[in-house]
Amino acid sequence: MKKVVIYLLILLFTISGSNAIYQIKYSCEEILCLGGSRVNFDILLVHPELNTKYISIDLINYNNNETIAASGEIDMTVTPQSNGSLSLFGVLPENTRVANVLPCFTITPLDENLEQKEQTGRLCGASFFTIDIISSDLIDCISSQDCYKNEECIDNLCLSFICNEREYIDNHECIALNCTEKEYMENNECKKLKCDYGEYAENHECKELRCGMFQKIEENTCALNTRLLIKIFLALGVIGVVSGILYVKLKLP
User: Fold this and answer.
1) How confident is the model at residue 101 (pLDDT cuts 50, 70, 90)?
2) Helix (H) and strand (E) counts for the chain?
3) Cross-strand pairs, 52
4) Quick count: other Cβ atoms within 10 Å of Cβ 235?
5) For residues 72 and 4, what is the distance between their CA atoms, to the nearest angstrom?
6) Distance (Å, rounded) from C-alpha 12 to C-alpha 128?
7) What is the model's pTM?
8) Using 50, 70 and 90 to split pLDDT, how confident is the model at 242?
9) Which has the closest alpha carbon to 186: 161, 208, 172, 205?
10) If both were cysteines, with which of 34, 109, 128, 168 could 62 make a disulfide (CB 3.0 to 4.6 Å apart)?
11) CB atoms within 10 A of CB 206
């Protein structure tokens, strides 16, 4: 996220006695403008009366006369019918709380035919504008991404937080766990249940198996007791044979 500030300043060109208006918008890479970090400038030039050719634009630190941003050599003509615009970037000074930025312009005044009217000269703005600078040594963070995963950035400090046992940490926030029925929640994680023999997992806990008459316990589930069924069928078969023999004997004279 960027911090953006707009300044509207008036510059007086003493060469020809005409006024020129310039607007400068600056934006820092972060919410705070940190010393040593990049800063972007967008410049708009408006000339109500004057035809001017711009050769270069420099943004000077008024405190020590060092250059913060410079255009290099350009060829831009600004007239009452045509505004001029330019984007520059530079680096904010370190070991200071403010940068007093003074725009300076190298220009050539032009006549109505856009021919050189007067000598090329260098003019600076009537006043500077101030950028507040924060030392990176005085802050922990700009965003939560600068902190450990169990911390969030509040007022440029990394502050830790604790999720409850039904949550886990993701991207510096607490997210609800979504464990399966065969898992339980512990230490902000989903862990697989280890049920004892004769138990089964349901609703995140182990419960006792209650198998049917013709079932048997196999590990953690009820299975069909085929051996018992075979024994029952065999027993029923024997009973049937014996019953048949008795029936036959009873029928004999």
Assistant:
1) very high
2) 1, 20
3) 78, 109
4) 10
5) 24
6) 14
7) 0.57
8) very low
9) 205
10) 128
11) 17
Rounded to whole angstroms, the Cα distance separating 157 from 147 reads 9
Q: Is the pLDDT reported for residue 247 higher than 70?
A: no
Do 79 and 57 touch, CB atoms closer than 8 A?
A: no
Task: Give pLDDT, residue 230.
Answer: 65
Residue with tokens 């020590």: 64
Q: Are 120 and 107 in contact (CB under 8 A)?
A: yes
Beta bridge partners of 41: 26, 88
3-state secondary structure 15-49: CCCEEEEEEEEEEECCCCCECCCEEEEEEEEECCC
Name all domains of the chain by residue range, CATH numbers in brackets: 3-138 (2.60.40.150), 144-176 (no CATH)
CB atoms within 10 A of CB 2: 11
Question: What are the angstrom distances between the C-alpha of 131 and each of 71, 92, 126?
Answer: 19, 9, 17
